[in-house]
User: Fold these one by one.
Assistant:
Number 1:
Amino acid sequence: MAAHNRVILIGNLTRDVELRKTPGGTSVADVGLAINERRKEQSGEWVDSVTFVDVTLWGRTAEVASEFLHKGSSLFVEGRLRLDTWETDGQKRSKMRVICEKMQMIGGRGDEGGRSSGSSSMARNVVAAPGDYYESDGAAHADDFETPGQRDSQPTGAGAGYNDDDIPF
């Protein structure tokens, strides 16, 4: 039987990230993510709704999140669903959560809760899943983040062929 368990979310943190350690020394953080949705009802009226999702970050991902993110920060998360079950006072309880495998911080360093504060907005890529794309000595470095100067350059219009009269614009 085939199975596929993959979740991709973009939302805003509902609270500051609180980093803690397991008895074995692994970093872990539980964060809340608010995902806003705006849709039009049959009456033509716009309705806003929000979905709250609990996300667990592990290892270097949790450490980076606690260092750079705060309540209101925009975040892209990719991971898998996990159902936690437990019993409290004889009642069975359960909760669905996302186990983060990759994340991307959205917004510039000066952004407050995803709102621009005059600085240019850029996405900072941090992929910190064990054995995945991110390898580090445990410290964040300036070159871990994409800056506008590191992107591929775009044509400026000064090269050959840009003064062609056949171009319709």
Number 2:
Amino acid sequence: MPTTTHIDQVLRQAADAKEVPGVVAAAVNDKGAIYEGAFGKRDLGKGDAMTVDSVFWIASMTKAITATAAMQLVERGKLTLDDPVGKLLPQIAASQVLDGFDAAGKAKLRPAKRPITLRQLLTHTAGFTYDIWNPDLLRYEEKLGIPGIISCENLALTMPLTFDPGERWDYGINIDWAGKAVEAASGQKLDAYLHDNIFAPLGMKDTGFKLGAGQRARLCGMHARTPDGLAAIPFELPQEPEFHMGGGGLYGTARDYLAFLQMLLHKGKHNGATLLKPETVAEMSKNNIGNLTAGVLKTAAPDLSNDVDVFPGMAAKWGLSFLINPEKGPAGRSAGSLTWAGLANTYFWLDPAKRVAGVILTQVLPFADAKVLSLYGHFESGIYQVLEAA
């Protein structure tokens, strides 16, 4: 009978071989924990052992949490999915589209053909992109001296669109704008709103934008994959940011994130709290981009990301705000499962049909690292083998 021992072996071997500095993996079903493991070091520069309560920068795994906040406000009538979000955020109403550069190298900008909606922000169809996967945006930033989004400076949000709203899927700063909409609609700063409406009800005591002393004592260091192997590198998000980055600013633990995923498995309820209505979770979990496809990105910054193709050969879809595989996944997840990831190679999936969710966390750049993705696949398939044998 398959057991989780095989998962332990695979993760331990990878850490021992320095394929990853350290790794935490954990999985739950709708009844509770089914796996938890920690292997290797939190930081190769210091040598502290990885533990199941180690703290990671979860980066874009933040997005699903911010989307949940936005959908709570939709339920309360404070936000709408399909009205122009520029009514709340005048700056977004004035967004222009970057149509390349003229012969002198000056950016060519024009008004967008239609207003941006919250649904477009949550589905990455609004027109905003990330410089990591868009060379024109990188060029625009450099020419105008605009900082990257992880600066958490408001100036970083002044980027143009790279296509008209609703016309395609492309990954970008959309959920940072959704975080601004949450603030405008709720009257709270994003950190306070998330704490009061998501983290405290779910018992997510180690998740937040700012590192407390207890979290810092368990914080994982960042690492870069170099030709000579893994190297510890300095990294920390601004602790007193101009804005809280709803698209990627959170630090947290595997256990905390699984509490959030269990809430979704339970159709909006967990830990004695109701965060969303079942019909809202259903809306978030279905294809919201029609005939468009999602999940493929070509890198413009190889030190930060490899090329990304989450489900090669599959026309993946996007919910509010998750990648959806319309066919069965290669490691066992059901069609219609939800997933996404964070830049430093943190990943999660949620399978509503088989009632299981998992996370695997490292702190390695660049994103879409082949060794971590291989571990992810072994971990996921191991979890399904255990479930099937039960």
